[in-house]
Write a structure and sequence with these properties.
Elements lengths: L1 E8 L3 H12 L1 H8 L1 E9 L16 E2 L3 H4 L6 E4 L7 H10 L3 E4 L2 H6 L1 H11 L3 E2 L10 H8 L6 E5 L2 H10 L5 H10 L8 H4 L2 H15 L9 E2 L7 H9 L3 E10 L5 E10 L12 E8 L3 E8 L3 H21 L12 H20 L3
Parallel strand pairs: 1-2, 1-4, 2-3, 4-5, 5-6, 8-10
Antiparallel strand pairs: 7-9, 7-11, 9-10, 11-12
Helix pairs in contact: 1-2, 1-13, 4-6, 7-11, 8-9, 13-14
The protein binds NADP nicotinamide-adenine-dinucleotide phosphate (NAP).
The site of NADP nicotinamide-adenine-dinucleotide phosphate has 23 residues, from helix 1.
């Protein structure tokens, strides 16, 4: 049996869902993946907070160094959210040769280059399938599909605003639809990132980076949310045969420039995003070579997001078992830390190939 030791950052909706999935799926993981996942420590802000999942108190800590400095921790799974201190913890983990799996679109979009450089330097994996579209496997699909030139990537990437627009099309006001989304746990108490388009902007930035080798530039994204969309606008669009949806889009124009935007758009029947309702997400990848690929499914929620995280943990295991360790690329002057991280990643890979634990 292969064993992997995880340090989990965060035990809210997603981190709690990850814990539950690991406990609930342990027989499945053993039978189908020959894998045992040991969540050794869980970082939270407040160990005394009541939690919806039954996590042993002894696993909880408010000290990130218990995870970052534990040589037994192979993978850091991050489900904290936000930019700092997530960025610092992920960089520390990567520099120490720990593999990183994250659901955090903000840190990925805002520290894209820095995180990838740290991963490349130590040879550790950096996986983030859960950060855009949750269980929809778009992050892992894009590097393969973009082997052919991609013309555009676009989609409905924010389940909360799609839920609100869906309910408004049934006659609810935006305020009532938002209150309902909050009651059902789809919307945050502060829903501004959803309503103003920032959440979708972070996600499309990641997809644009993968499709077009674009270095995420959040200031360069044309951003329009749904805050100013009224029920009357939606009903009028519907009357004319259109679905009004919040669409995030990235495309390369004829001059080679990458244009990224998020905005409410009227979609005609037959459009691949027409009819996407409620909290569902969908993404379309278009190319002159292969046509269009559409992926859709649950873009949020503890189960779908935890599944994407676990899928990435399994990818780390596959890498450790099968791959040669990546060579350390040592930037001049930073050799010692980098070499230590690379050595840790290399020794983990060697351990794995021999399955000696
Ligand atoms: N919710 C979804 O459906 C979904 C879908 C895809 C991706 N995501 C992403 O997943 C991540 C987590 O989302 P969530 O909904 O699970 O958030 P959440 O319910 O607010 O949980 C956040 C967790 O992180 C801990 N935490 C936050 N800041 C911390 C800090 N500075 N130090 C230590 N612990 C800290 C919190 O500790 P306490 O419990 O002690 O407060 C909590 O356990 C975000 O990046 C989000 O964008 C979420």
């Amino acid at each position: 049996m292969r064993e992997i030791t995880v340090g989990l950052l965060g035990c809210g909706n997603v981190g709690g869902g990850f814990w539950q999935l690991i406990i609930g799926a342990r027989h499945h993981l053993a039978a189908h993946k020959n894998l045992s996942v040991d969540i050794r420590h869980i970082l939270v802000r407040d160990v005394n907070r009541p939690r919806s999942v039954a996590v042993p108190r002894s696993h909880l800590t408010t000290d990130p160094w218990r995870i970052l400095e534990d040589p037994e921790v192979d993978v850091v799974v991050e489900a904290m959210g936000g930019f700092e201190p997530a960025r610092t913890y992920l960089l520390e983990a990567l520099r120490r040769g720990k593999h990183v799996v994250t659901a955090n679109k903000v840190v990925m979009a805002r520290a894209w280059d820095e995180l990838h450089e740290a991963a490349q330097a130590s040879g550790a994996c950096l996986f983030y399938e859960a950060a855009a579209g949750a269980v929809i496997p778009v992050i892992r699909s894009l590097p393969g599909l973009s082997a052919a030139p991609v013309r555009a990537v676009y989609g409905i990437l924010n389940g909360t605003s799609n839920y609100i627009l869906t309910r408004m099309a049934e006659g609810l006001s935006q305020a009532d639809a938002l209150a309902e989304a909050q009651r059902l746990g789809y919307a945050e108490p502060d829903p501004s990132d959803d309503l103003d388009g920032r959440d979708a902007a972070y996600k499309i930035a990641l997809l644009a980076a993968l499709a077009f080798d674009w270095s995420p530039d959040l200031d360069g994204i044309e951003m329009k949310g749904i805050r100013n969309v009224s029920t009357e606008d939606i009903l009028a669009a519907q009357e004319a045969g259109f679905d009004l949806r919040h669409v995030a889009r990235a495309e390369r124009d004829e001059s080679g420039q990458v244009k990224v935007s998020v905005a409410p758009v009227e979609l005609p029947p037959g459009h691949p995003l027409y009819g996407i309702r409620g909290v569902e997400n969908a993404v379309v990848i278009e190319s002159d070579v292969f046509g269009a690929v559409t992926l859709k499914g649950a873009g949020a929620g503890p189960g779908p997001t935890a599944t994407a995280l676990l899928g990435d943990v399994c990818r780390v295991v596959d890498r450790l078992v099968w791959a040669e360790p990546s060579p350390a690329v040592s930037p001049a002057g930073a050799a010692a830390d980098v070499a230590a991280g690379a050595a840790a990643a290399a020794s983990a890979a060697a351990r794995w190939r021999g399955e000696s634990r």
